[in-house]
Amino acid sequence: MALKIWMDGKYCDESEARVSVFDHGLLYGDGVFEGIRAYNWKPFRLRQHVTRLYNSAKAIMLAIPMAPEAMARQVEDAVRVNGNPDAYIRLVVTRGVGDLGLDPRKCPKPTIFIIAAKIQLYPPEFYEKGLDVVTAATPVNHRENLNPRIKSLNYLSHILAKIEGIQAGVDEVIMLDHEGYVAECTGDNIFAVDLPDRRSQGRKVLRTPPANAGLLKGITRDAVIELALDANFDVREEPLTRYDLFTAEEVFLTGTAAEIISVVKVDGRPTGGGKPGPVTADLLRRFRALATSGG
Ligand code: PMP
Fold this sequence. Notes:
- The protein is of the alpha+beta class.
- The chain is 28% helix and 26% strand.
- The longest helix is centred in the C-terminal third of the chain and has 15 residues, at 278-292.
- The structure holds 4'-deoxy-4'-aminopyridoxal-5'-phosphate (PMP).
- Residues 35, 158, 184, 187-189, 216, 218-221, 254-256 line the site of 4'-deoxy-4'-aminopyridoxal-5'-phosphate.
């Protein structure tokens, strides 16, 4: 069935959904977006996604001509209209149509559209065998250039990193920040699981890079942190180096589409015995229970 795209106030068939060649989202990557997943008609953590969208827009001085509550209702409506209870939703706001100069003042009206599509997942065998990843030479954007917390339409550094992974024949890549600390993957956040240490009082330790250091603060990442705290892990948001990943008991990625997926090899070093580990599996079970019960 053809998708119904909500665009600037009304639905149209996907074959008719068009943006102008003068839209600054296209010409300059000037815009923001969200990727949201519905479980049984209910978009997971919709409020957090909408808040992140409006914060991204605020950071680039893009005024969205719609209240956040109305935007959230529109996302729910797009899921219903497309008749897909488990849709992957792409919510996009661009600077809008302007002229060929980059002056945003020439764009009087932002373009807004919502696509509620079929979800594209890693195939099931990737969850069973885990991912082989390498570190990309391309770092994430410097936080004072284009802060990675802004989910902007400019994904070129992440795409360049992805191309490095494709050329290396691996499943995903790890991106570092400009200081060489681990930041994130091209579309996912990253966690390392370690055995209990002196500080953790017998609990296993979950570590992930701090969001303010320059990475996208994933909605899945935040849900996993909450679930891990409930499950009595010692959760630490602290800088990680590649060494921390090489020596971790388990490494996994989190993201809206992937949910939680194991990494079994980092730059050729098997992590956690080279197969998906029990903590990753446990957190994935907890995450799916949370997502399917309404988040
Ligand atoms: N980092 C990047 C660069 C991403 O594009 C995404 C996906 N939106 C994530 C992390 C994970 O974020 P979330 O859990 O909100 O999907």
